[in-house]
Design a protein that fits this description.
Helices cover 77% and strands 0% of the residues. The chain is mainly α and 171 residues long. It has one domain.
């Protein structure tokens, strides 16, 4: 059962990371299009700047579960390495602290998303897309990140290792 959960989690994180890559590529394409219109055609741009900002933020939020899954985040491991084989305790404490922050952010982002969707809120710009569209990346990214942290905590308690390491070793 544990391997099945880890495979589903890995699939969700990979899909989320793939969407993040696509959003970043789209932002690059739109920047190129914006430069072309503004400098070569002397035209104005309306939606491009806002789309670029939302795309880059969405890329960051949607990519965060994958980064945690692959242990790609920056961490200073001077103290954990000094703890030897007890470093999992420190990882567990930091995971609970992360879960506290991310779960509050996840809950409030869901509230904000539902309110924006049900009230048909728009962004306050000339382009004015529905606000729920950019908030969707916040909701999905933080929900997947929360799931990832919960799996890390379960893995640390059960195996004294993080999810990614446990999954790679076939536990």
């Amino acid at each position: 059962m544990w391997n099945g959960i880890l495979k589903i989690n890995k699939l969700l994180s990979n899909v989320s990371a793939s969407i993040a890559i696509i959003m970043l590529l789209l932002a690059c394409i739109v920047v190129t299009e914006m430069v072309y219109i503004r400098y070569f055609l002397q035209g104005s741009t309306v939606w491009e700047t806002e789309f670029i900002m939302y795309s880059i933020v969405a890329s960051t939020l949607l990519g965060s579960p994958y980064v945690l899954l692959t242990q790609g985040h920056v961490k200073i491991d001077l103290v954990p390495n000094a703890m030897g084989n007890k470093k999992w305790i420190l990882e567990l404490i930091s995971s609970f602290m992360s879960l506290t922050f991310v779960s509050v952010l996840t809950f409030t982002s869901w509230e904000y998303f539902i309110e924006a969707y049900t009230n048909n809120w728009l962004t306050e710009t000339v382009w004015a897309p529905p606000l729920w569209i950019p908030l969707l990346s916040l909701v999905i990214g933080m929900t997947f990140l929360c799931i990832q942290i919960i799996l890390n905590i379960c893995s640390l308690i059960a195996f004294k290792k993080c999810v990614f390491i446990a999954h790679e070793e076939g536990l």
